[in-house]
Amino acid sequence: MSDAPRDIDHLIELMAKLPGLGPRSARRAVLHLIKKRGLLLNPLADAMHAVAVSARECLNCGNIGTSDLCEICQSEKRANGEICVVEDVADLWAMERSQVFKGRYHVLGGTLSALDAVGPEDLRIPKLVDRVISEEVKEVILALNATIDGQTTAHYLAEQFEGSDVQVTSLAQGVPIGGELDYLDDGTISAALKARKSV
Amino acid sequence: MSDAPRDIDHLIELMAKLPGLGPRSARRAVLHLIKKRGLLLNPLADAMHAVAVSARECLNCGNIGTSDLCEICQSEKRANGEICVVEDVADLWAMERSQVFKGRYHVLGGTLSALDAVGPEDLRIPKLVDRVISEEVKEVILALNATIDGQTTAHYLAEQFEGSDVQVTSLAQGVPIGGELDYLDDGTISAALKARKSV
Q1: Residue range A6-54, CATH number
Q2: How far is A26 from chain B (nearest CA, A)?
Q3: What is the pLDDT of residues B30-72, one digit of tens each?
Q4: Where are the domains positioned within chain B?
Q5: A50, A173, B13, B51: most buried by Cβ count inside 10 Å?
Q6: B118 in contact with A at a CB cutoff of 8 Å?
Q7: Which residues does the UniProt record annotate as the domain Toprim (chains A, B) (predicted)?
Protein backbone atom coordinates (compact mmCIF):
# COMPACT_ATOMS: atom_id res chain seq x y z
CA MET A 1 0.00 0.00 0.00
CA SER A 2 1.62 3.22 -1.05
CA ASP A 3 -1.46 5.42 -1.60
CA ALA A 4 -0.28 6.09 -5.10
CA PRO A 5 -2.80 5.77 -7.92
CA ARG A 6 -3.46 2.25 -9.17
CA ASP A 7 -1.17 2.38 -12.25
CA ILE A 8 1.74 3.52 -10.13
CA ASP A 9 1.03 0.98 -7.39
CA HIS A 10 1.02 -1.78 -10.01
CA LEU A 11 4.37 -0.60 -11.38
CA ILE A 12 5.84 -0.51 -7.85
CA GLU A 13 4.64 -4.07 -7.19
CA LEU A 14 6.28 -5.33 -10.38
CA MET A 15 9.52 -3.43 -9.77
CA ALA A 16 9.72 -4.89 -6.25
CA LYS A 17 9.98 -8.36 -7.83
CA LEU A 18 13.36 -7.55 -9.38
CA PRO A 19 16.35 -9.07 -7.60
CA GLY A 20 18.03 -6.47 -5.41
CA LEU A 21 14.93 -4.28 -5.06
CA GLY A 22 12.43 -4.41 -2.22
CA PRO A 23 9.21 -2.44 -1.72
CA ARG A 24 11.02 0.66 -0.46
CA SER A 25 13.65 0.84 -3.18
CA ALA A 26 10.97 0.03 -5.77
CA ARG A 27 8.98 3.10 -4.64
CA ARG A 28 12.12 5.21 -4.84
CA ALA A 29 12.91 3.89 -8.32
CA VAL A 30 9.37 4.54 -9.57
CA LEU A 31 9.35 8.12 -8.25
CA HIS A 32 12.70 8.64 -10.00
CA LEU A 33 11.26 7.19 -13.22
CA ILE A 34 8.22 9.49 -13.06
CA LYS A 35 10.45 12.53 -12.56
CA LYS A 36 12.58 11.49 -15.55
CA ARG A 37 9.68 10.43 -17.74
CA GLY A 38 11.11 11.46 -21.11
CA LEU A 39 14.71 10.56 -20.37
CA LEU A 40 14.24 7.26 -18.60
CA LEU A 41 10.69 5.92 -18.18
CA ASN A 42 9.67 5.86 -21.85
CA PRO A 43 13.05 4.62 -23.14
CA LEU A 44 13.10 1.90 -20.46
CA ALA A 45 9.62 0.69 -21.40
CA ASP A 46 10.63 0.63 -25.10
CA ALA A 47 13.88 -1.20 -24.34
CA MET A 48 11.98 -3.82 -22.33
CA HIS A 49 9.54 -4.39 -25.16
CA ALA A 50 12.45 -4.72 -27.62
CA VAL A 51 14.22 -7.29 -25.43
CA ALA A 52 10.99 -9.21 -24.82
CA VAL A 53 10.60 -9.59 -28.58
CA SER A 54 14.23 -10.22 -29.54
CA ALA A 55 15.88 -12.19 -26.71
CA ARG A 56 16.34 -15.89 -27.39
CA GLU A 57 18.17 -18.71 -25.64
CA CYS A 58 20.87 -20.22 -27.86
CA LEU A 59 19.80 -23.80 -28.69
CA ASN A 60 23.42 -24.94 -28.69
CA CYS A 61 25.01 -23.41 -25.58
CA GLY A 62 22.23 -21.72 -23.56
CA ASN A 63 23.65 -18.19 -23.92
CA ILE A 64 21.16 -15.38 -24.50
CA GLY A 65 21.18 -13.79 -27.94
CA THR A 66 18.85 -12.60 -30.64
CA SER A 67 18.69 -15.73 -32.80
CA ASP A 68 18.45 -19.51 -32.32
CA LEU A 69 22.25 -19.71 -32.38
CA CYS A 70 24.13 -17.06 -30.37
CA GLU A 71 26.94 -15.00 -31.95
CA ILE A 72 29.63 -17.07 -30.26
CA CYS A 73 28.22 -20.38 -31.55
CA GLN A 74 27.81 -18.84 -35.02
CA SER A 75 31.41 -17.63 -35.17
CA GLU A 76 33.79 -20.13 -36.80
CA LYS A 77 36.72 -18.34 -35.11
CA ARG A 78 35.50 -19.49 -31.70
CA ALA A 79 35.52 -23.18 -32.74
CA ASN A 80 39.06 -23.72 -31.38
CA GLY A 81 38.35 -27.02 -29.64
CA GLU A 82 37.80 -25.41 -26.21
CA ILE A 83 34.50 -25.27 -24.35
CA CYS A 84 34.17 -23.26 -21.14
CA VAL A 85 31.40 -24.61 -18.89
CA VAL A 86 29.63 -22.00 -16.71
CA GLU A 87 26.63 -22.15 -14.41
CA ASP A 88 24.77 -19.12 -15.66
CA VAL A 89 24.64 -16.54 -18.44
CA ALA A 90 25.93 -13.93 -15.97
CA ASP A 91 29.09 -16.03 -15.56
CA LEU A 92 29.47 -16.24 -19.35
CA TRP A 93 29.25 -12.45 -19.56
CA ALA A 94 31.85 -12.13 -16.78
CA MET A 95 34.23 -14.44 -18.69
CA GLU A 96 33.68 -12.47 -21.92
CA ARG A 97 34.42 -9.17 -20.16
CA SER A 98 37.90 -10.47 -19.34
CA GLN A 99 38.45 -10.91 -23.12
CA VAL A 100 40.91 -13.77 -22.59
CA PHE A 101 38.96 -16.87 -23.54
CA LYS A 102 38.69 -17.44 -27.30
CA GLY A 103 36.65 -20.65 -27.41
CA ARG A 104 32.96 -21.40 -27.01
CA TYR A 105 30.79 -21.70 -23.91
CA HIS A 106 28.28 -24.08 -22.43
CA VAL A 107 25.77 -22.71 -19.92
CA LEU A 108 24.58 -25.45 -17.53
CA GLY A 109 21.69 -23.42 -16.14
CA GLY A 110 22.53 -24.24 -12.52
CA THR A 111 24.44 -26.83 -10.52
CA LEU A 112 23.71 -30.35 -9.38
CA SER A 113 22.06 -30.20 -5.98
CA ALA A 114 20.86 -33.09 -3.86
CA LEU A 115 18.93 -30.70 -1.59
CA ASP A 116 17.02 -29.06 -4.43
CA ALA A 117 16.72 -32.37 -6.33
CA VAL A 118 18.58 -31.06 -9.39
CA GLY A 119 19.97 -34.00 -11.38
CA PRO A 120 22.14 -34.12 -14.54
CA GLU A 121 19.07 -34.28 -16.80
CA ASP A 122 17.75 -31.00 -15.29
CA LEU A 123 20.90 -29.22 -16.43
CA ARG A 124 22.32 -28.98 -19.95
CA ILE A 125 24.77 -31.85 -19.29
CA PRO A 126 23.64 -34.41 -21.97
CA LYS A 127 23.88 -31.60 -24.55
CA LEU A 128 27.45 -30.89 -23.39
CA VAL A 129 28.43 -34.53 -23.94
CA ASP A 130 26.91 -34.35 -27.44
CA ARG A 131 28.76 -31.13 -28.24
CA VAL A 132 32.12 -32.48 -27.13
CA ILE A 133 31.77 -35.14 -29.83
CA SER A 134 30.09 -33.12 -32.60
CA GLU A 135 32.32 -30.04 -32.22
CA GLU A 136 35.51 -32.12 -31.82
CA VAL A 137 36.32 -30.53 -28.47
CA LYS A 138 39.79 -31.16 -27.06
CA GLU A 139 39.51 -29.30 -23.75
CA VAL A 140 36.58 -28.71 -21.40
CA ILE A 141 37.35 -25.82 -19.01
CA LEU A 142 35.18 -25.87 -15.90
CA ALA A 143 34.52 -22.30 -14.73
CA LEU A 144 32.04 -23.19 -12.00
CA ASN A 145 31.60 -21.24 -8.80
CA ALA A 146 33.78 -22.32 -5.89
CA THR A 147 30.75 -23.42 -3.86
CA ILE A 148 30.00 -26.95 -2.68
CA ASP A 149 27.35 -27.46 -5.39
CA GLY A 150 29.65 -25.98 -8.02
CA GLN A 151 32.48 -28.32 -7.05
CA THR A 152 30.15 -31.36 -6.92
CA THR A 153 29.05 -30.52 -10.45
CA ALA A 154 32.69 -30.15 -11.54
CA HIS A 155 33.52 -33.63 -10.17
CA TYR A 156 30.50 -35.13 -11.92
CA LEU A 157 31.47 -33.53 -15.25
CA ALA A 158 35.09 -34.67 -14.92
CA GLU A 159 33.82 -38.24 -14.47
CA GLN A 160 31.77 -38.03 -17.66
CA PHE A 161 34.88 -37.48 -19.76
CA GLU A 162 37.16 -39.96 -17.95
CA GLY A 163 38.76 -42.41 -20.35
CA SER A 164 38.13 -40.19 -23.37
CA ASP A 165 40.72 -38.02 -25.13
CA VAL A 166 39.08 -34.85 -23.83
CA GLN A 167 41.14 -32.91 -21.31
CA VAL A 168 39.12 -31.49 -18.40
CA THR A 169 40.58 -28.47 -16.59
CA SER A 170 39.24 -25.94 -14.11
CA LEU A 171 40.01 -22.34 -13.24
CA ALA A 172 42.91 -21.89 -10.82
CA GLN A 173 42.03 -21.03 -7.24
CA GLY A 174 44.13 -18.60 -5.21
CA VAL A 175 44.58 -15.03 -4.08
CA PRO A 176 42.58 -12.62 -6.29
CA ILE A 177 44.55 -9.87 -8.07
CA GLY A 178 44.68 -6.84 -5.75
CA GLY A 179 43.50 -9.02 -2.86
CA GLU A 180 44.90 -8.43 0.62
CA LEU A 181 45.71 -11.54 2.64
CA ASP A 182 44.22 -10.01 5.78
CA TYR A 183 40.78 -9.85 4.13
CA LEU A 184 40.82 -13.36 2.60
CA ASP A 185 39.08 -16.35 4.13
CA ASP A 186 41.03 -19.36 5.40
CA GLY A 187 39.86 -21.59 2.55
CA THR A 188 41.27 -19.29 -0.13
CA ILE A 189 44.58 -18.89 1.67
CA SER A 190 45.01 -22.64 2.14
CA ALA A 191 44.06 -23.28 -1.54
CA ALA A 192 46.59 -20.65 -2.64
CA LEU A 193 49.29 -22.17 -0.43
CA LYS A 194 48.69 -25.71 -1.73
CA ALA A 195 48.86 -24.48 -5.33
CA ARG A 196 51.97 -22.33 -4.74
CA LYS A 197 54.31 -21.85 -7.69
CA SER A 198 58.05 -21.16 -7.92
CA VAL A 199 58.83 -17.60 -9.01
CA MET B 1 30.38 -3.77 -21.91
CA SER B 2 28.61 -7.01 -21.12
CA ASP B 3 28.96 -8.88 -24.42
CA ALA B 4 25.23 -9.21 -24.55
CA PRO B 5 23.46 -8.33 -27.79
CA ARG B 6 22.82 -4.63 -28.38
CA ASP B 7 19.16 -4.58 -27.26
CA ILE B 8 20.05 -6.23 -23.97
CA ASP B 9 23.08 -3.97 -23.44
CA HIS B 10 20.86 -0.95 -23.96
CA LEU B 11 18.35 -2.23 -21.41
CA ILE B 12 21.15 -2.88 -18.89
CA GLU B 13 22.48 0.66 -19.37
CA LEU B 14 19.04 2.17 -18.70
CA MET B 15 18.36 -0.07 -15.69
CA ALA B 16 21.73 0.93 -14.19
CA LYS B 17 20.45 4.54 -14.04
CA LEU B 18 17.79 3.62 -11.47
CA PRO B 19 18.59 4.66 -7.91
CA GLY B 20 19.85 1.67 -5.93
CA LEU B 21 21.01 -0.27 -9.01
CA GLY B 22 24.54 -0.28 -10.40
CA PRO B 23 25.93 -2.01 -13.51
CA ARG B 24 26.24 -5.37 -11.78
CA SER B 25 22.77 -5.46 -10.22
CA ALA B 26 21.31 -4.11 -13.48
CA ARG B 27 22.79 -7.09 -15.35
CA ARG B 28 21.34 -9.42 -12.73
CA ALA B 29 17.92 -7.77 -12.96
CA VAL B 30 17.91 -7.95 -16.77
CA LEU B 31 18.84 -11.66 -16.79
CA HIS B 32 16.03 -12.25 -14.29
CA LEU B 33 13.63 -10.28 -16.53
CA ILE B 34 14.60 -12.32 -19.61
CA LYS B 35 14.06 -15.58 -17.71
CA LYS B 36 10.63 -14.38 -16.58
CA ARG B 37 9.65 -12.81 -19.87
CA GLY B 38 5.93 -13.52 -19.78
CA LEU B 39 5.47 -13.05 -16.04
CA LEU B 40 7.58 -9.95 -15.49
CA LEU B 41 9.28 -8.38 -18.52
CA ASN B 42 6.20 -7.78 -20.66
CA PRO B 43 3.95 -6.69 -17.75
CA LEU B 44 6.67 -4.32 -16.50
CA ALA B 45 7.07 -2.71 -19.93
CA ASP B 46 3.29 -2.29 -20.18
CA ALA B 47 3.06 -0.86 -16.65
CA MET B 48 5.81 1.65 -17.46
CA HIS B 49 4.02 2.77 -20.61
CA ALA B 50 0.78 3.14 -18.63
CA VAL B 51 2.44 5.27 -15.95
CA ALA B 52 4.29 7.37 -18.55
CA VAL B 53 0.92 8.23 -20.09
CA SER B 54 -1.16 8.66 -16.94
CA ALA B 55 1.12 10.11 -14.22
CA ARG B 56 0.64 13.81 -13.57
CA GLU B 57 1.91 16.22 -10.93
CA CYS B 58 -0.96 17.75 -8.96
CA LEU B 59 -1.07 21.48 -9.80
CA ASN B 60 -2.21 22.29 -6.27
CA CYS B 61 0.04 20.26 -3.95
CA GLY B 62 2.74 18.60 -6.08
CA ASN B 63 1.62 15.03 -5.31
CA ILE B 64 1.68 12.53 -8.17
CA GLY B 65 -1.68 11.37 -9.47
CA THR B 66 -3.52 10.73 -12.68
CA SER B 67 -5.24 14.09 -13.16
CA ASP B 68 -4.39 17.78 -12.78
CA LEU B 69 -5.71 17.65 -9.21
CA CYS B 70 -4.67 14.63 -7.13
CA GLU B 71 -7.26 12.52 -5.26
CA ILE B 72 -6.43 14.14 -1.93
CA CYS B 73 -6.88 17.69 -3.25
CA GLN B 74 -10.14 16.64 -4.97
CA SER B 75 -11.59 15.12 -1.79
CA GLU B 76 -13.70 17.59 0.21
CA LYS B 77 -13.28 15.36 3.28
CA ARG B 78 -9.57 16.18 3.38
CA ALA B 79 -10.25 19.98 3.52
CA ASN B 80 -10.12 20.05 7.34
CA GLY B 81 -7.99 23.16 7.65
CA GLU B 82 -4.71 21.23 8.06
CA ILE B 83 -1.87 21.13 5.56
CA CYS B 84 1.09 18.81 6.07
CA VAL B 85 4.26 20.11 4.38
CA VAL B 86 6.67 17.43 3.11
CA GLU B 87 9.86 17.55 1.08
CA ASP B 88 9.07 14.86 -1.42
CA VAL B 89 6.29 12.64 -2.77
CA ALA B 90 7.97 9.65 -1.07
CA ASP B 91 7.44 11.42 2.29
CA LEU B 92 3.78 12.04 1.43
CA TRP B 93 3.35 8.32 0.69
CA ALA B 94 5.04 7.47 4.00
CA MET B 95 2.62 9.79 5.88
CA GLU B 96 -0.36 8.25 4.07
CA ARG B 97 0.76 4.72 4.92
CA SER B 98 0.45 5.60 8.62
CA GLN B 99 -3.23 6.45 7.96
CA VAL B 100 -3.32 9.00 10.76
CA PHE B 101 -3.31 12.35 9.00
CA LYS B 102 -6.70 13.38 7.58
CA GLY B 103 -5.83 16.75 6.02
CA ARG B 104 -4.14 17.75 2.79
CA TYR B 105 -0.48 17.87 1.80
CA HIS B 106 1.95 20.26 0.22
CA VAL B 107 5.04 18.83 -1.48
CA LEU B 108 7.92 21.36 -1.48
CA GLY B 109 10.02 19.41 -3.98
CA GLY B 110 13.18 19.75 -1.88
CA THR B 111 14.65 21.90 0.88
CA LEU B 112 16.25 25.32 0.99
CA SER B 113 19.98 24.90 0.55
CA ALA B 114 22.62 27.62 0.46
CA LEU B 115 25.19 25.16 -0.88
CA ASP B 116 23.05 24.02 -3.81
CA ALA B 117 21.63 27.57 -4.32
CA VAL B 118 18.03 26.47 -3.73
CA GLY B 119 15.93 29.49 -2.73
CA PRO B 120 12.24 29.79 -1.74
CA GLU B 121 11.18 30.46 -5.34
CA ASP B 122 12.78 27.17 -6.46
CA LEU B 123 10.50 25.27 -4.09
CA ARG B 124 6.70 25.32 -3.96
CA ILE B 125 6.72 27.90 -1.11
CA PRO B 126 4.81 30.82 -2.74
CA LYS B 127 2.08 28.33 -3.70
CA LEU B 128 1.90 27.18 -0.05
CA VAL B 129 1.36 30.78 1.12
CA ASP B 130 -1.43 31.16 -1.48
CA ARG B 131 -3.07 27.90 -0.40
CA VAL B 132 -3.05 28.81 3.29
CA ILE B 133 -5.25 31.79 2.40
CA SER B 134 -7.42 30.27 -0.33
CA GLU B 135 -8.10 27.00 1.51
CA GLU B 136 -8.64 28.73 4.88
CA VAL B 137 -5.91 26.68 6.54
CA LYS B 138 -5.70 26.84 10.34
CA GLU B 139 -2.66 24.63 10.93
CA VAL B 140 0.49 24.01 8.90
CA ILE B 141 2.22 20.81 10.06
CA LEU B 142 5.87 20.68 9.06
CA ALA B 143 6.89 17.06 8.38
CA LEU B 144 10.36 17.84 7.07
CA ASN B 145 13.35 15.55 7.47
CA ALA B 146 15.42 16.11 10.61
CA THR B 147 18.45 17.20 8.58
CA ILE B 148 20.10 20.63 8.67
CA ASP B 149 18.51 21.68 5.36
CA GLY B 150 15.14 20.33 6.48
CA GLN B 151 15.28 22.29 9.72
CA THR B 152 16.45 25.48 7.96
CA THR B 153 13.44 25.18 5.66
CA ALA B 154 11.16 24.61 8.66
CA HIS B 155 12.43 27.83 10.31
CA TYR B 156 11.94 29.78 7.08
CA LEU B 157 8.38 28.48 6.70
CA ALA B 158 7.55 29.27 10.35
CA GLU B 159 8.70 32.86 9.73
CA GLN B 160 6.39 33.20 6.73
CA PHE B 161 3.32 32.65 8.87
CA GLU B 162 4.45 34.69 11.91
CA GLY B 163 1.87 37.27 12.92
CA SER B 164 -0.94 35.47 11.06
CA ASP B 165 -3.63 33.31 12.66
CA VAL B 166 -2.12 30.18 11.18
CA GLN B 167 -0.63 27.77 13.69
CA VAL B 168 2.67 26.22 12.59
CA THR B 169 3.61 22.89 14.18
CA SER B 170 6.17 20.22 13.44
CA LEU B 171 6.44 16.47 14.03
CA ALA B 172 7.69 15.50 17.49
CA GLN B 173 11.27 14.32 17.75
CA GLY B 174 12.26 11.54 20.10
CA VAL B 175 12.86 7.83 20.45
CA PRO B 176 11.27 5.85 17.59
CA ILE B 177 8.73 3.17 18.52
CA GLY B 178 10.60 -0.09 19.05
CA GLY B 179 13.89 1.82 19.15
CA GLU B 180 16.61 0.73 21.52
CA LEU B 181 18.50 3.50 23.31
CA ASP B 182 21.81 1.75 22.76
CA TYR B 183 21.42 2.07 18.99
CA LEU B 184 20.26 5.71 18.94
CA ASP B 185 22.52 8.63 18.13
CA ASP B 186 23.30 11.29 20.74
CA GLY B 187 21.20 13.94 18.99
CA THR B 188 18.03 11.85 19.15
CA ILE B 189 18.56 10.98 22.81
CA SER B 190 19.16 14.61 23.79
CA ALA B 191 16.10 15.74 21.79
CA ALA B 192 14.00 13.05 23.48
CA LEU B 193 15.28 14.09 26.91
CA LYS B 194 14.56 17.79 26.33
CA ALA B 195 11.02 16.97 25.17
CA ARG B 196 10.34 14.53 28.03
CA LYS B 197 6.76 14.22 29.24
CA SER B 198 5.22 13.23 32.57
CA VAL B 199 3.65 9.75 32.49
Answers
A1: 1.10.8
A2: 9
A3: 999 999 988 999 999 999 999 999 999 999 999 998 889 999 9
A4: 6-54, 77-170
A5: B51
A6: no
A7: 81-176
